Amino acid sequence: MTPPLVHVVLGSTRQGRAGERVARWFLGLGAGRDDLRLELGDLRDWPLPFFDRPRPPAAGDYDDPAQIAWAAHVAEAQAYVLVTPEYNHGYPAVLKNALDTVYAEWGGKPVAFVGYGGAAGGVRAVEQLRQVVVELDMIPLRQQVALPRVYSAFDDDGSLRHPGPEREAASVLDALADWTPSKRS
Amino acid sequence: MTPPLVHVVLGSTRQGRAGERVARWFLGLGAGRDDLRLELGDLRDWPLPFFDRPRPPAAGDYDDPAQIAWAAHVAEAQAYVLVTPEYNHGYPAVLKNALDTVYAEWGGKPVAFVGYGGAAGGVRAVEQLRQVVVELDMIPLRQQVALPRVYSAFDDDGSLRHPGPEREAASVLDALADWTPSKRS
20 to 30 A from A46, CA-CA: which of A8, B11, B148, B168? Predict the structure, then answer.
């Protein structure tokens, strides 16, 4: 049986974003597993306009080509990991916009979080996102990565200078494997 | 002495947005006051890109023309009212992006909220925004408007079918007048 597909959504498109290292580190930790297939979902590859449609995505009648393509991409995955920076204690607009642009494709699927940032490791952005994903009918998992001081966290080879978050990442991956229904794969 | 200028920021750019009626209703209520000058700040007039600069706005070295123009506009006001819809229990991307794109221009100024939506009147989006504006060094006020069932709330002439929120709006305006330092005007 093919293991379920998990999109690791990189929620920053900023020049010089720290999130690229974070996402690649997380993908590397999940690469050896036979119970999950992880794929990077880079929002730079999905340049959506600010949501401006006259009809709410929950109505399901998508009418914008970028929205329709994004919906088809989101539908491919059986679970998600949202890799998010924290901007002013909240989530970045580009990630919220990607979440808000479609609806049914997210529903009934587990979602976990990898936050990064300064001293707090993005935890405030993650808490706000948990409130959002519930309304998208996703299943937010308790397990999470909180990666503080992200600008000095990695060696040049992309590994962490100080261990700890690898264990958090493993618990995220275990929880995703536990909660992603195999009947969906 | 010129009364302080308050930007009433319309936080939706969506086609068919309900927020336009809400913002115009609120502006109408404030039009007769001699202690505040209210001006509409429509985000449709400020088409910012998704924030992607290499340097954080808190550094103050803005390098994008749209960002520089937005900063000059924001700097004109001595206080703000954020008129916000609620998308999936959170704030819309277009409003968060406008907040995140600049920094120092918001600081040290009072901000109040007019939320609108379904049964809850946008209160969840407003609570998330309060967490954000504190980190922008703004002063979030307790007084707020929560406008439920927005699609049936207004008569054709733009007045509310059921009274109540006018009183909330008056308390918002009073609080803004109380807390906006006149020395800034």
Answer: B11
